[in-house]
Design brief:
By secondary structure, the chain is an alpha+beta fold. The protein is built from 7 helices and 10 strands.
Length: 277
């Protein structure tokens, strides 16, 4: 029996039609030097995210430890509406993203009536010292926040002590500051599926796109902007605003941005269908 040999391009097309995933270059690995140089751009992207409601100072009441009466507090640090900024972030970028989160979170005090001079001095000193500390931290764990470092934690405590001292002197009627408060809704599972199938889908966070823009990179470039291909059969844990792009074998495509809201953890995973334009 005579063996039939198909051209390579035809085999690739047949594989795509059958739903097989073709190799695609992985995102380019970011070096420690590049991460350090990108801190100003990371801060620009974090401010953009904060402006979209990503960082929200929140007020609450707490009993005064000495006087036994309720006092108004304002919670800071990692009070965010989603986990968008920590997805699609490399291990070498994570400390700088954490620091930018801290810095921009405190800058948000302006939005709720605090004077710049209450926090600017201590904040910039903290930022300078932590940048120096990050440069010498070794063996960073991927899932460990910057605040897990003992020296960074001490620097944070010193900063809050100075800010609170300034608040009592400059704005004694303003709410007291609490640096260890947390809020946020976490992530929820979503299936991202093409309709019709097959097609290939990639996602990245809007925060990562903002960062690419600040770095003068094409935010839609799959390789340079840290996009990740998703498997339609596997749920993605998502929270926040993501960019997506899909490509079909016949050349059709779609791209855009979509928000993913947290929902009841006991509910089944939601399905989002992506259709060509």
């Amino acid at each position: 029996m005579k063996r039939v040999i198909f051209p390579a391009f035809l085999l690739g097309f047949i594989a795509l039609l059958s739903g097989a995933t073709q190799p695609f270059p992985p995102p380019r690995k970011i070096t420690a030097e590049e991460a350090r140089a990108s801190y100003p751009a990371i801060k620009v992207a974090m401010r953009s995210w904060a402006g979209r409601g990503g960082l929200i100072p929140h007020f609450y009441m707490e009993d005064h430890p000495m006087e036994g009466r309720p006092r108004k507090m304002i919670g800071l640090f990692y009070c965010s509406t989603n986990n968008e900024t920590w997805d699609h972030v490399s291990i070498v970028e994570r400390p700088y993203v954490d620091l930018a989160n801290d810095v921009v979170m405190i800058e948000q005090l302006k939005t709720v009536g605090y004077y710049d001079r209450v926090f600017e001095g201590p904040l910039r000193e903290y930022e300078k010292d932590v940048l120096a500390r990050i440069a010498v931290i070794k063996n960073v764990e991927p899932d460990m926040p910057l605040s897990s470092d003992r020296i960074v934690r001490r620097l944070s405590e010193q900063m809050f002590t100075e800010i609170e001292k300034n608040r009592r002197k400059i704005q004694p009627r303003a709410a007291e500051l609490a640096g260890d408060a947390e809020c946020g809704d976490g992530e929820s599972p979503y299936y991202l599926r093409p309709q019709p199938s097959p097609a290939r889908i990639w996602i990245t966070t809007q925060f990562r796109q903002d960062l690419c823009r600040a770095q003068k990179k094409d935010p839609w470039d799959i390789r340079t902007c840290q996009w990740r291909e998703v498997d339609p059969s596997q749920a993605e844990e998502l929270s926040g605003t993501y960019a997506y792009q899909a490509k079909w074998p016949d050349g059709r495509a779609r791209r855009g941005n979509r928000s993913f809201e947290p929902y009841d953890a006991m509910a089944p995973a939601k399905i989002v269908y992506i259709k060509p334009q």
